[in-house]
């Protein structure tokens, strides 16, 4: 599809209707130029139309911005990737004293620290929110041993944000504004709700697409999680940030935000993902890495309270695509958009075979737990199922995540599940670490087995 705005807008309008997405903005960056369009409404309660200047929460795409701040500090000689966190934050601690002493900045940016990653704690609205959050990690246990596997870790990025605060003397919010947004001229990129309300702001929607989708009553996650996912921005601003990375760390006016070496290092392979079907095949420093038909892309997804965001960057063709949404079946919509706009062949959607293989179910039955999530895997009528229970603050904010899933075999240790109302299948992967401990990998997170279950009947 061409970069013609009218055609993009018409296509986006058709897609949000088909996938029951209340509103969306779509932007395409090609050869340094950005075209952005919008469709739908910012809230089904107010019916305010979405426009290209509307701001949406970009969720965990924020992590690439936080990683960029860290790499700026590396460029400035104030930090090294293999610096132990405790060298910068002397009071830092987690429950495992060995991890406290040895976890590094690189571990934080590559999700290999093993620190339980979904510790959502509201430490208030003050400028000390991130500092107080990091203090609360002292009793947090490991999901897995340091560097033993990959497990998506929001907590680690809040720690990275605190490192930024200590070394710059700024709050993380001010560092984003002064060290990235201002040099790039991004006047609609904000981190606080009182700033977002000055713009045309989207509201998330929760519920089953096509059934009970309605505006959420909570607008954003706590400030303590800012470095992991609290940026709100126009789609144009997200692509301007991507354009800086495509340009090797330089803004269009020549202002350098990153060295060429640091911008390149962020995209380079750091760690493989246990189950490549989950999202990308590997991780860089902040960036997710994707292999689409032999083409290397980087990007990130983001999810907050009823909002979803997607960014993909194809360096070899100087192309980036960003989709920001406020509810609905966004995964199916994303696939259709990106397959066309990225101008490369996407991998086929993950799905079980038409004739699923017979597998031994006994090794997988049991309870798998981490902060905020308990997953019970059990037999039902000769098949395998899992029941995910979300608790704590996340359970209060996202109650629809608590549900039961049927698991369809793909291969030994590999299953597929599809939440009710969704068009896309999700992978569920069971594996064993070198020390013999057993894990369930789902949602790009490693869930350790804490209790073996009864044999299936």
TrEMBL record:
Stored InterPro entries: AmpC-like, Beta-lactam-related, Beta-lactam/transpept-like
Database matches in SUPFAM superfamilies: beta-lactamase/transpeptidase-like
Keyword Protein biosynthesis appears in the UniProt entry: no
Gene3D superfamilies: DD-peptidase/beta-lactamase superfamily
The UniProt record lists the keyword Metal-binding: no
Pfam families listed in its UniProt record: Beta-lactamase (PF00144)
Residue ranges annotated for the Beta-lactamase-related domain, each copy included: 10-341
GO molecular function: hydrolase activity
Domain of life of the organism encoding this protein: Bacteria
Alphabetical keyword list: Hydrolase
Name recorded for this polypeptide: Class A beta-lactamase-related serine hydrolase
Organism in which the protein naturally occurs: Jiangella ureilytica
Lineage: Bacteria, Bacillati, Actinomycetota, Actinomycetes, Jiangellales
């Amino acid at each position: 599809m061409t970069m013609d705005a009218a055609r993009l807008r018409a296509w986006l309008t058709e897609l949000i209707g088909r996938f029951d997405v209340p509103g969306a903005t779509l932007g395409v960056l090609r050869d340094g130029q950005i075209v952005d369009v919008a469709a739908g409404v910012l809230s089904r309660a107010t019916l305010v139309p979405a426009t290209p200047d509307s701001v949406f929460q970009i969720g965990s795409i924020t992590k690439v911005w936080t990683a960029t701040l860290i790499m700026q500090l590396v460029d400035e000689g104030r930090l090294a990737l293999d610096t132990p966190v405790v060298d910068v934050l002397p009071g830092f601690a987690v429950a495992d004293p060995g991890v406290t002493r040895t976890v590094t900045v690189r571990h934080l940016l590559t999700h290999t620290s093993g620190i339980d990653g979904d510790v959502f704690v509201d430490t208030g609205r003050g400028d000390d929110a991130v500092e107080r959050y990091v203090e609360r990690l002292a009793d947090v246990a490991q999901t897995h041993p340091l560097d033993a596997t990959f497990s998506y870790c929001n907590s680690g990025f809040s720690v990275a944000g605190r490192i930024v605060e200590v070394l710059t003397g700024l709050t993380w919010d001010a560092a984003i504004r002064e060290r990235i947004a201002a040099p790039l001229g991004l006047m609609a990129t904000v981190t606080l709700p009182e700033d977002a309300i000055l713009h045309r702001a989207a509201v998330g929607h929760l519920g089953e697409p096509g059934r009970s989708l309605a505006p959420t009553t909570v607008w954003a996650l706590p400030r303590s999680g800012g470095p992991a996912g609290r940026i709100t921005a126009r789609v144009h601003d997200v692509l301007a940030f991507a354009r800086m990375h495509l340009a090797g760390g330089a803004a269009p006016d020549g202002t350098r935000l990153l060295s060429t070496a640091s911008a390149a290092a962020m995209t380079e392979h750091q760690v493989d993902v246990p189950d490549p079907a989950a999202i990308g095949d590997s991780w860089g420093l902040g960036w997710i890495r994707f292999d689409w038909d032999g083409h290397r892309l980087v990007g990130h997804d983001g999810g907050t309270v009823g909002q979803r965001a997607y960014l993909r960057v194809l360096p070899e063709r100087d192309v980036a695509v960003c989709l920001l949404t406020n509810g609905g079946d966004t995964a199916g919509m994303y696939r259709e958009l990106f397959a066309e706009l990225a101008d490369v062949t996407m991998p086929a959607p993950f799905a079980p075979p038409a004739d699923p293989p017979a597998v031994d179910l006994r090794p997988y039955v049991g309870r798998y737990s981490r902060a905020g999530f308990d997953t019970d895997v059990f037999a039902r009528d000769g098949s395998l199922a899992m029941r995910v229970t979300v608790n704590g603050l996340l359970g209060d904010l996202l109650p629809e995540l608590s549900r039961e899933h049927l698991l369809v075999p793909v291969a030994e240790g590999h299953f597929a599940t599809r939440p009710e109302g969704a068009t896309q299948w999700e992978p569920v992967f069971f594996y064993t670490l070198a020390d013999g401990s057993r894990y369930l990998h789902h949602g790009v997170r490693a869930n350790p087995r804490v209790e073996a279950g009864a044999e299936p009947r």
